[in-house]
Specification:
Order of helices and strands: EEEEEEEEHEHEHHEEHEHHHE
Strand order of the largest sheet: 7-1-4-9-8-10-11-12-13-14
Number of helices: 8
Radius of gyration: 20 Å
Strand content: 15-25%
Length: 391
């Protein structure tokens, strides 16, 4: 995309009038690149059994990376995502404007930066939460968003897609976290990653994977339903990835955990869910979060909102499509762009408090007689926040 300034409010992640205090972009120049990483000896769920046995393969992940950069006049990145789905025969690419510079040199003189890994929903794409990724990177974070093979719009499996998600989500997330050490020691981000300050963000099945990565074990009933794939999701020795210092869970799929799994979580978490979510069910998510009593939790509820609490807004080309297509990004009550602004505000506050030891918690805990801290009067309508400390 040629270097032309897009008006404010036209690029996903922009702060609209009345957005809360921390919703706007930061002052850091953002670069954007895409890479491919290969994970050897992974279970080939999509292929199925060969001669009665599950096979392994080298699993390739396409990964989007946003990072602090040097502005040398590069063009803005033009991001590509898709309507429809390949297995349904209606896949259509579309492009999105951005405010990140394509292939720009990383600002290696700027020191170490905290890292955020974003895991998309089911199905989804590495671009589905680009609004949040670019926003956080403009505030000094390095953001890594993998596309989860077998579960993206481009490669969604006709069979065993959910089984692949159950097996691979946490493995993909842990693999990406492993790769951060390689990025730190070599390549275009060398010397820039603060490996003591890593956060994980998951939406829907990405949230399911995040809970697994944090240590939650799947309930025995679900393990048994997976049949002879059950061994791939039972890890008795796994106690959670202590490298993750904070996690954000957007409408996470908690239905495959029983309440005992909540006690496996010790990492501080921010939960975001719509009260009308009929996909993962608000009441179940909230009840599970309440039971995570070994961790500090912030729970943000959007009153009347459905499942799509984190996605980018719908592209213009989707506005002439059916609701069946449009609903990937839309909500019947809430404006997605407003949700994006709220999320940027709350996630910025939470990560500031947990990774940077800043004063971001004031934006999650304090109200006056007119509005929640950081909001203009009347603009916090529909938002409810609960704060639960570890026991």
């Amino acid at each position: 995309m040629k270097r032309e300034q897009q008006p404010m409010g036209t690029v996903f992640g922009d702060a609209l009038p009345g957005a809360p205090a921390l919703a706007g972009r930061g002052r850091v120049t953002v670069g954007f690149r895409e890479v491919e990483w290969s994970h050897a000896d992974q279970l080939d769920v999509g292929r199925g059994k060969v001669n009665g046995a599950w096979q392994t393969y080298t699993r390739t992940l396409r990964v989007a990376v946003w990072y602090p950069a040097i502005d040398a006049g590069e063009d803005y990145a033009c991001l590509t995502d898709h309507m429809g789905r390949v297995d349904l025969g209606n896949l259509k690419p579309f492009t999105m404007a951005s405010r990140s510079l394509l292939g720009a040199n990383a600002d290696t003189a700027s020191g170490k930066h905290p890292v955020v890994v974003i895991s998309h929903g089911y199905p989804g794409s590495r671009m589905l939460l680009s609004n949040l990724a670019e926003n956080l990177s403009s505030k000094g974070y390095i953001v890594i968003a993998p596309g989860h093979t077998d579960n993206t719009y481009e490669d969604f499996l006709k069979e065993r897609s959910m089984e692949s998600a159950m097996v691979h989500r946490t493995l993909d997330q842990r693999f990406v976290i492993d790769k951060l050490w390689e990025l730190e020691s070599e390549g275009f981000l060398r010397g820039m990653l603060d490996l003591d300050r890593i956060a994980l963000v998951g939406f829907s099945m990405g949230g399911f994977g995040a809970l697994r990565t944090l240590g939650a074990k799947m309930c025995q009933d679900m393990v048994e339903r997976l049949g002879d794939l059950g061994y791939a999701v039972t890890e008795p020795a796994w106690q959670g990835d202590s490298r993750v210092k904070a996690a954000v869970l957007f409408a996470p799929a908690t239905m495959w955990f029983d309440e005992r799994a909540a006690m496996d979580i010790t990492t501080p978490t921010l939960w975001v869910c719509g009260t009308a979510d009929r996909t993962v069910h608000y009441d179940k998510v909230r009840a599970f979060a309440e039971k995570c009593t070994r961790s500090d939790r912030v729970f943000v509820s959007y009153i009347g909102c459905g499942h799509n609490v984190a996605n980018n807004p719908a592209p213009v080309c989707a506005q002439s499509e059916s609701w069946e297509i449009y609903k990937r990004w839309g909500d019947s009550v809430w404006d997605t762009w407003k949700l994006n602004n709220l999320n940027a505000h709350f996630v910025t506050a939470f990560l500031d408090a947990r990774l940077l030891s800043g004063d971001g918690m004031q934006y999650l805990t304090e109200c006056d007689e007119k509005a929640r801290r950081g909001f203009l009067e009347g603009t916090d309508a529909g938002v409810m926040i609960d704060l639960w400390n570890r026991a």
